[in-house]
Amino acid sequence: MNLPDKLEKMGHALTADDLAQLLVVSKPSVYKLAAEGKIPHFRIGMSLRFDPHSVAAWLRERVA
């Protein structure tokens, strides 16, 4: 199963740490992508969260 398919099976929003582990990048890299508007995200208070379906679509756009 590829990463976008795996993400779509997740039933909850991801933290920056969760996403960093899945993408095999650093947590600061995830925060930087979000701050630059390059990866879909949303805020809950002061915390960033990532919708797995939106991230899966974002990944598919990058490899197409």
Q: If you compute it from the alpha carbons, what radius of gyration comes out, rounded to the nearest whole angstrom? A: 11 Å
**Helix amount, in percent?**
40-55%
Mean pLDDT: 95
Largest sheet: 2 strands, antiparallel
Structural domain count: 1
Stretches where pLDDT falls below 50 for ≥5 residues? none
Alpha-beta content class: mainly alpha
Strand order of the largest sheet: 1-2
Ends: how far apart? 17 Å
The CATH architecture term is Orthogonal Bundle
Keywords:
two-stranded antiparallel ribbon, globular, single chain, Arc Repressor Mutant, subunit A, 64 residues, mainly alpha
Task: Describe what this molecule looks like in 3D.
This protein is 55% helix and 9% strand. The chain has helices spanning 3-8, 16-23, 27-35, 52-63, and strands spanning 42-44, 47-49. The chain has a two-stranded antiparallel sheet with strand order 1-2. A hairpin with a 2-residue loop joins β1 (42-44) and β2 (47-49). The model has no long low-confidence stretch (mean pLDDT 95).
